[in-house]
Design a protein that fits this description.
three-stranded antiparallel beta sheet; alpha+beta; five-stranded mixed beta sheet; 343 residues; single chain; Immunoglobulin-like; 11 helices
Length: 343
């Protein structure tokens, strides 16, 4: 039986008062939901995909809210409608941010760019929970609110689409960026109408052009959410997908046997993902850097991680020093960094 409007409004007010008394409840539930899903993805359970799909259901609201705002205000005018829209939007932003956090944290590597990006996501999640800061700095300013919604929508697409639609990251990243660009274009008239000066309007137009470009150029600083390295080592032998003893220091004469970079990477089920092994060495005398890229492909669903490796047979004469093998996605997102030293 459908509740009449006053009863619906009363129930909504009761729920809002509950969250005001317990402001930590929704973020804590979302964060826990994310960690449970992250653990299930690592175990390869299909239930994690269902959980991610439930979170993704709220994603269209963030995309459509700017266009529904005026319509709903005309249908049900009053301060309550504005507060209700703001409450729903803020709650969904919290849900998406805190659900995505475990996948971002689980994929972050000891890389300056990835650490900074993770810190930005954590800061955005905290801002969404601090009502005085959110209401005065985000919700009260249309441009800031649209920017915050765009960031949440882009992050949700980046993290959740690979799990829900089985998209590899090399397709999920440009898809999320394309959706963000379209969304910025469609919301441009509303945002320009809310800005008071031509300088601010020109600044926003430039931001709509620069932000997608900057996200694409800095894509290697984004953790590869959904992928995790279960095992990695540098060795000189491998048999039946099992690596030999790990090597950290080796004599130059022993390089004739070749070196192997081995990884076992966990990916969501039914995802086929390309990875690159980037062998790097800087000559200590000439400071010239040698880079060799070797591609491979992994397939999701293996609980222990899909095992693959890269073998390098030929080394230059001046091979002494530290060698680095970066395992990355085609976009350059770092999955694992391995090192060995040649005496």
């Amino acid at each position: 039986m459908q509740l009449p409007y006053p009863a619906w409004k009363s129930r909504f007010n009761q729920f809002e008062q509950l969250l005001e008394r317990l402001p930590w409840l929704l973020p804590a539930l979302s964060f826990s939901w994310g960690w449970i899903s992250f653990a299930m993805v690592r175990r390869g359970e299909d239930f994690a995909r269902t959980m991610a799909l439930l979170v993704l259901i709220g994603w269209p609201w963030l995309l459509l809210e700017p266009f529904l705002h005026k319509y709903l205000e005309r249908r049900t005018p009053g301060n309550f409608t504005t507060l209700a829209l703001r409450f729903v939007t803020q709650s969904l932003q919290q849900e998406l941010l805190f659900f995505s956090l475990p996948f971002i944290i689980g994929a972050v590597q000891l890389d300056a760019g990835q650490i900074i990006f993770t810190a930005i996501v954590i800061m955005a999640a905290l801002i969404s929970t601090i009502d005085p800061l959110y209401n005065h700095r985000i919700a009260a300013h249309p441009a800031a609110n649209l920017f915050f919604q765009g960031f949440c929508s882009w992050l949700a697409a980046l993290v959740l689409l690979p799990m829900v639609l089985h998209l590899p990251l090399e397709r999920a990243a440009p898809t999320a960026l394309a959706l963000l660009s379209i969304w910025l274009l469609l919301t441009l008239p509303r945002c320009l109408a809310a800005l008071s000066s031509y300088r601010k309007k020109i600044g926003w137009i430039l931001a709509c052009l620069i932000i997608p470009l900057a996200l694409w150029l800095l894509r290697d600083s984004i953790p590869a959410a959904g992928l995790s390295v279960r095992e990695a080592s540098i060795t000189q032998s491998i048999a039946e997908l099992t690596p030999g003893p790990a090597v950290t220091v080796i004599h130059h004469a022993e390089l004739e046997k070749g070196m192997i970079a081995f990884v076992a990477i966990r990916a969501p089920m039914r995802v086929a993902q390309s990875v690159n092994f980037n062998w790097r060495h800087r000559d200590p005398r000439t400071h010239h850097e040698t880079v060799e890229r070797i591609g491979a492909e992994i397939h999701g669903g293996n609980n222990a991680g899909w095992r693959t490796w890269s073998r390098k047979q030929h080394f230059p004469e001046n091979s002494q020093g530290v060698w680095t093998v970066d395992v990355t996605t085609p976009q350059g997102q770092l999955l694992k960094r391995l090192q060995f030293k040649v005496d």
